[in-house]
């Protein structure tokens, strides 16, 4: 791990990984803005720091924003190839430090690194969604945040596995039935909604002790609306005045803050108050109830935001992972066949499907899961962290206030970590890094399988639940069904383009996800 030395002004992170520093290519032409903004730190008599390489062509004031294109992370990945694993990108008036190397990411964002655990301030996410520093995802570390995160980890951890498994098993069965029946009826099925319904139900039931009946259930419709709105409003495009303060005038003209206020106080909060009230009236165990009983963290705002964080962070992510995996695997029927045989072997020996605790008996299927996550990461940049003070990284300066992001695409295609990284290799993980993903997410860089769950003190607290859900769907889907591409009017397969990516703000979704889910005539259990 990186060695962290702190004094009152600068935190110093020193590389101790061979090659870590040497792979950094010095910037050919650091942007004028970056140079100027760095000078005030370089002028600190204690240090003489290098400027982090920055791509050419930044515009005055707008910085690199006009160069980003529709999928900014593709541009970031190109810049990383050119300039090395640590780059500085000017996002309007904000500085983003992007990392494409796992060791470096761990050194800068690792668990022992308290100076990078903050979240950058954005108007909607921090002031409105988080009701100013409440909940988990949008709050900065504080005693309340620590206790709330610990309570969440408790409820989502393997210690609660029996409860979570019981909740999810029937939903996974229902999902497969829906996908199969819709295909039989309509010829194909748009898999996104049913997948979202399934993941929402698990986390909704965990939080409130009840579930939605179907995608037409008003609860599902309302929560989907609240989630989509929150996702949309927190995307960089919607938060543009954070990056270009001059655009604040547009916010005033379009009464944006008034609109955010209305959404949170007239739609989001009343909905969550209703869900909490209903769960208190029912005789059910749920996280909302436990949270309300916990001293110090049971104030109204913290309870609402924590529950909203879980519902939002826990639904889209898992659903999108499963969506991508189905899109990928419809291109590889032979991989599906091998998984079917592997799971089938377990079924014929035990007369039932494997449970999550028995996943070691289906190593190929687990490897395919991980490879899907590596091949198409679910987020572009994870969630940004913020430097809460000046940080020295091997002679480079990350200034206080800079946002720190990881280029997930570049990170997962690092040839130093992944042989032939641009190729989908289903058995890549069969003999190595076979630990559960949630364990791996909390380990050092050399032990991690992938980096989708983020880093350090902010690493995803829902990784165990996500993995459990993915497993439950996986063994049912691939033992019972073949995932095929949809067909055109002539009955020919229309293979989804794996490079057709829809920019959904924080998550990276497939452009289209209409498929055919065909149940085998001799389907297993
Ligand atoms: C495949 C599924 C998932 C992926 C890829 C994923 C990924 C992530 C990432 C990248 C972060 C940011 C980590 C960082 O800042 O370094 C995060 C944070 C978070 N995730 Fe997940 N997540 C998934 C599922 C879930 C689930 C199922 C839940 C809960 C039910 C959840 C709850 C959260 C919360 C509350 C945070 C905020 C943590 C904090 O700010 O301290 N996630 N997740």
UniProtKB/TrEMBL annotation:
Source organism per UniProt: Phascolomyces articulosus
Keyword Magnesium assigned: no
Cited PROSITE patterns: CYTOCHROME_P450
Annotated TM spans: 13-36
Family membership: Belongs to the cytochrome P450 family.
Domain of life per record: Eukaryota
Chain sites annotated for binding heme: 460
InterPro entries cross-referenced by the UniProt entry: Cyt_P450, Cyt_P450_CS, Cyt_P450_E_grp-I, Cyt_P450_sf, Cytochrome_P450_fung
Cofactor(s) needed by this chain: heme
Keywords: Heme, Iron, Membrane, Metal-binding, Monooxygenase, Oxidoreductase, Transmembrane, Transmembrane helix
GO molecular function: heme binding; iron ion binding; monooxygenase activity; oxidoreductase activity, acting on paired donors, with incorporation or reduction of molecular oxygen
SUPFAM superfamilies: Cytochrome P450
Name recorded for this polypeptide: Cytochrome P450
């Amino acid at each position: 791990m990186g060695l962290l030395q702190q004094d009152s002004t600068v935190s110093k992170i020193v590389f101790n990984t061979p090659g870590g520093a040497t792979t950094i290519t010095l910037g050919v032409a650091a942007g004028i803005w970056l140079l100027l903004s760095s000078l005030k730190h370089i002028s600190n008599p204690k240090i003489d720091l290098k400027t982090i390489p920055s791509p050419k062509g930044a515009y005055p004031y707008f910085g690199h924003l006009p160069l980003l294109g529709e999928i900014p992370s593709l541009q970031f990945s190109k810049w990383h190839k050119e300039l090395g694993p640590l780059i500085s990108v000017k996002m309007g008036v904000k500085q983003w430090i992007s990392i494409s190397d796992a060791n470096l990411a761990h050194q800068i964002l690792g668990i022992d690194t308290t100076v990078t655990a903050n979240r950058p301030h954005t108007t909607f996410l921090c002031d409105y969604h988080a009701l100013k520093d409440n909940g988990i995802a949008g709050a900065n570390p504080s005693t309340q945040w620590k206790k709330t995160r610990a309570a969440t980890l408790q409820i989502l951890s393997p210690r609660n596995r029996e409860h979570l498994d019981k909740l999810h098993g029937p939903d996974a069965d229902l999902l497969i039935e829906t996908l199969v029946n819709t295909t039989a009826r309509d010829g194909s099925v748009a898999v996104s909604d049913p997948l979202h319904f399934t993941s929402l139900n698990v986390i909704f039931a965990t939080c409130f002790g009840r579930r939605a009946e179907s995608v037409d259930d008003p609860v599902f419709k309302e929560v989907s609306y609240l989630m989509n709105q929150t996702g949309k409003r927190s995307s960089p495009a919607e938060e543009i005045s954070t990056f270009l303060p001059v655009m604040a005038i547009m916010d005033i003209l379009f009464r944006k803050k008034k609109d955010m206020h209305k959404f949170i106080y007239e739609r989001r909060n009343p909905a969550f108050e209703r869900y909490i009230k209903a769960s208190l009236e029912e005789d059910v165990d749920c996280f909302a109830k436990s949270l309300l009983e916990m001293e110090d963290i049971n104030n109204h705002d913290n309870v609402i935001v924590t529950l909203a964080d879980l519902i939002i962070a826990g639904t889209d992510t898992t659903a999108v992972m499963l969506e991508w995996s189905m899109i990928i695997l419809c291109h590889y029927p032979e991989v599906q066949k091998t998984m079917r045989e592997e799971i089938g072997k377990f079924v014929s020996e035990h007369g039932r499907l494997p449970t999550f605790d028995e996943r070691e008996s289906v190593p190929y299927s687990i490897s395919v899961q991980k490879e899907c996550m590596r091949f198409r990461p679910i987020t572009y940049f994870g969630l940004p962290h913020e430097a809460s003070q000046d940080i020295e990284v091997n002679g480079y300066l990350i200034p206080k206030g800079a946002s720190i992001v990881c280029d997930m695409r570049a990170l997962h295609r690092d040839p130093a970590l992944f042989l032939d990284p641009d190729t989908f290799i289903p058995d890549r993980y069969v003999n190595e890094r076979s630990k559960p993903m949630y364990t791996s997410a909390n380990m050092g860089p050399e032990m991690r399988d992938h980096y989708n769950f983020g880093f350090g003190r902010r690493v995803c607290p829902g990784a165990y639940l996500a993995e459990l859900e993915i497993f439950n769907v996986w063994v049912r889907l691939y033992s019972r069904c073949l995932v095929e591409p949809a067909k055109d009017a002539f009955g020919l397969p229309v293979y989804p383009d794996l490079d057709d990516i829809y920019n959904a703000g924080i998550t990276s979704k497939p452009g289209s996800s209409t498929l055919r889910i065909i149940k085998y005539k001799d389907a297993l259990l």
